[in-house]
TrEMBL record:
Pfam families attached to this UniProt entry: SDF (PF00375)
SUPFAM superfamilies reported for this sequence: Proton glutamate symport protein (SSF118215)
Protein name: C4-dicarboxylate transporter DctA
Record's keyword terms, sorted: Cell membrane, Membrane, Symport, Transmembrane, Transmembrane helix, Transport
Organism in which the protein naturally occurs: Dyella monticola
Amino acid sequence: MSKPDHQPLLQTRPRRPFYRDLTFQVVAGMVLGVAVGALWPGLGRELKPLGDIFIRLIEMVVGLIIFCTVTHGIASVRDLSKVGRIAIKAIVYFEVVTSIALVIGLVTINLLRPGVGMHIDASMLQHAPAAQSAAPIGFGEFFVNLVPMSAFGAFAQGDILQILVFSVLFACGLASIGERAKPVLQVVDAVSGGLFWIIKIVMKIAPIAAFGAIAFTVAQFGLSTLLPLGALIGEFMLTCAIFFLLVLAPIAHFSGFNLLKLMRYIREELVLVLGTSSSESVFPQLTAKLTRLGVNESVVGMVLPTAYSFNHDGTCLYFAAVAVFLAQATGTALGWEQQLGLLVILLVTSKGGAGVSGSAIAVLTMTLAATKTIPVGSVALILGIHRVLSAAFVFTNIAGNCVATIVVGRWEKAVDTQQLKRELDIGYRIV
């Protein structure tokens, strides 16, 4: 019997051994780090540079990657009205979703009330380090700070917002000169390729970085230090889960994709931020993955960097929960009128630390200072568990930013829906 001339070809790839999967390696590094930090705290404290070096390697190129991504994406469009339309839609989305996050954070912390009964005398607490230099940022100062003193200064300081402003202006300038910009775009594209090669190499040490970061955290603060504030940790984890369930999942559903499949697609990045508590460490990989999902390059280049500065879903949950928790712990009366005022302040101050790695404590401190009710010194209460909380809110930030990028892309009809569905169904694979 002759075989048919044509048989269906299945696009199958040999499954890699589980121990070669980056997600497994990062989780294993975190587990080993907890053990080393708990059993040999002296050694654990010495391992801190492993995580710091990894984050610095990423930060070394992330500014240039933002510049290349934004410049190539916008200049290739050649339609400046489209750029403005994308920006407006993105900002509106960010403000609505982060406002919802703040409301969820306030409602949950008031219902569960983990800080009630602690009876902490705030006068006995030392001021948090950030409190010494933190000061409220007004609207005027915020907008002035958007513009760098010089383009090189923005890159040197790693200020994402300033880099974004310069990149958008430079890209618009290239778009305005038409075909003459083509050689520059070719150079930008080549530079971008070189930068992503660096990221690919750096990612190989991600498990080592997660190991060092977790080992230091456990060694420095100890497992026992998490117990007194375990209620706050549990409350905040629940708050993040509620946000995923009530906000991100419905948004994803009505936008035509499955949130769980998206999280599976970016699982390596989500696991990595749990270990490093750094959203910057996964920006380049997310840029590549969102483009591979079928989101237009111009949308990814515009929305994702902007989301890093304005769409702090998890951070807003953190600010709301921790601020009210500190009021409860110190016996500070905080009625709904004061909490609505707190919400308005948070909408401003949450943008004040935009783009600054590890700025949550400083922003929280200046928020408390702006309320003039919650003792600023009470921030010292959560310093020991901040790392645990930051891992959760950075995780939420990353998922929220990816959802936002796809949603704005769908609004712009700039997403290949078939490619999006195909990639999410199959899951991310290294090619």
